[in-house]
Design a protein that fits this description.
By secondary structure, the protein is mainly β. It has strands at 3-8, 16-22, 25-31, 37-41, 56-57, 60-62, 69-71, 88-94, 97-106. The chain has one domain (3-106): Rieske [2Fe-2S] iron-sulphur domain (Rieske Iron-sulfur Protein, 3-layer Sandwich). Strands 1-9-8-4-3-2 form a six-stranded antiparallel beta sheet, with no helix packed on it. A three-stranded antiparallel beta sheet has the order 5-6-7, with no helix packed on it. The N and C termini lie far apart (37 Å). The mean pLDDT is 91.
């Protein structure tokens, strides 16, 4: 575990994402509607697009280019065209700073299939 400062808590929107550079990794630091904080790869698994520029809804973040959404808890894509999960990182808050550990990425192991695709 190696948490590093990503973004001050008061720079996060009430619901939405901010891009942060954490130890050379582009990370989207996200606050969901329920107030939970998440950190995921900022780059979409479908193409080189910054996910932090997308909308946050129902604990997912939407890629603005083609509309795939990713579950913020697992990194799993829940809509095409993206089929590959993005990494999810542990996050915590200390002294009003959001800290992210990019040394131990997690992601869903199940690629998007017709069975788990959202319709
Ligand atoms: S670039 Fe993100 S879904 Fe295509």
């Amino acid at each position: 575990m190696s948490f590093q400062a990503a973004v001050p808590l008061d720079e996060l929107p009430e619901v939405g994402a901010v891009r942060a550079d954490v130890d050379g990794h582009p990370v989207a630091v996200v606050r969901a509607e329920d107030g939970s904080l998440h950190a995921v790869d900022d780059i979409c698994s479908h193409a080189e697009v910054s996910l932090s520029e997308g909308d946050v809804e129902d604990c997912t973040i939407e890629c603005w280019l083609h509309g795939s959404r990713f579950d913020l808890r697992t990194g799993a894509p829940i809509g095409l065209p993206a089929t590959v999960p993005i990494a999810v990182y542990d996050v915590k808050v200390e002294d009003d700073m959001v800290l992210v550990d990019v040394t131990a990425p997690r992601s869903a192991t199940t690629p998007l299939t017709a069975a788990n695709k959202e319709h």
